[in-house]
């Protein structure tokens, strides 16, 4: 039986389309990224110890989440994360301060009482920025970053936070700037001699929320995505 040429072309086109969809699906599964903020929807976040997104503390500004100075309410993810890779862009106004925290629990009154913090700050115009252990990219008030390339206030910085088991890495603008072990003796000793010693659950949670801090300044976050990591 003769098969019409037009029919063959149609079948081939459909097969290619399905193959392309299947490949895209496989690629998505392999990478495993989940977009937490795409420039429009805030559905992945809520206020710390709140059921809803705090519109009096955060707004969407030109495709980015922007903190408002008047009401200092931190954002947390609606889901908890244990082992993960987080990527986002941040930008600060002059003299601004913020942070990205992980393994945050709502058992304490503030996010920083449980969650270790990757510092976000204007290095050039703040006291925190002048001190290595509180400068941008540091494990706030505990460990300094090294060999970092940090862009100034008003410019975007791309960061990655990798947490896998006890191992943590901070990345900034394509380079690894810090790594440490949660629960390790060096970090435990630093905590015991820091302001965090008064909060017994600090850096002890094995899983928890990701938090974006509102420190009373204007800070922007965009292109926020996360993926679970296997041990």
Fill in the keyword field for this structure:
13 strands, eight-stranded antiparallel beta sheet, single chain, alpha+beta, five-stranded antiparallel beta sheet
Question: What's this entry about, in short?
Answer:
This protein is of the alpha+beta class.
Describe this entry's structure for a reader.
- It is built from three helices and 13 strands; from the N terminus they run αββββββββαβββαββ.
- It has 231 residues and is an alpha+beta fold.
- Strands 1, 3, 4, 6, 9, 10, 11 and 13 form an eight-stranded antiparallel beta sheet that branches. It has a five-stranded antiparallel beta sheet with strand order 2-5-12-7-8, with no helix packed on it.
- The protein is globular.
- The termini are far apart.
- Residues 21-30 have low confidence and may be disordered.
Q: Tell me the CATH superfamily of the largest domain.
A: Exo-inulinase, domain 1
* Main sheet specs: 8 strands, antiparallel
Number of domains: 2
Specify the structural class: alpha+beta
Layout: helices, strands, pairs:
Layout: H1 5-31, E1 34-37, E2 45-47, E3 58-61, E4 64-67, E5 75-77, E6 84-92, E7 97-104, E8 117-121, H2 127-130, E9 157-164, E10 167-172, E11 175-181, H3 185-192, E12 209-212, E13 219-228
Antiparallel strand pairs: 1-13, 2-5, 3-4, 4-13, 5-12, 6-9, 6-13, 7-8, 7-12, 9-10, 10-11
């Amino acid at each position: 039986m003769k098969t019409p040429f037009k029919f063959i072309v149609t079948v081939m086109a459909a097969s290619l389309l399905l193959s392309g969809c299947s490949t895209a699906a496989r690629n998505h599964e392999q990478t495993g990224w989940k977009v937490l903020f795409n420039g429009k929807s805030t559905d992945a976040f809520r206020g710390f110890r709140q059921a809803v997104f705090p519109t009096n503390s955060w707004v969407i500004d030109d495709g980015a989440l922007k903190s408002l100075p008047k009401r200092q309410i931190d954002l947390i993810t609606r889901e908890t994360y244990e082992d993960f890779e987080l990527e986002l862009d941040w930008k600060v106004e002059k003299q601004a301060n913020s942070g990205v925290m992980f393994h945050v629990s709502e058992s304490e009154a503030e996010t920083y009482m449980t969650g270790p913090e990757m510092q976000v700050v204007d290095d050039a115009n703040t006291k925190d920025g002048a001190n290595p252990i509180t400068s941008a990219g540091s494990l706030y008030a505990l460990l300094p970053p090294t060999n970092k390339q940090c862009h100034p206030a008003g410019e975007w910085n791309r960061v990655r936070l990798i947490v896998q088991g006890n191992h943590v890495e901070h990345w900034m603008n394509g380079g690894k700037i810090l790594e440490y072990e949660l629960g390790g003796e060096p970090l435990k000793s630093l905590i015991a001699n820091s302001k965090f010693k008064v909060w017994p659950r600090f850096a002890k949670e094995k899983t928890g929320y990701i938090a974006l801090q509102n420190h009373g300044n204007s800070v922007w976050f965009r292109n926020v995505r996360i993926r679970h990591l296997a041990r």
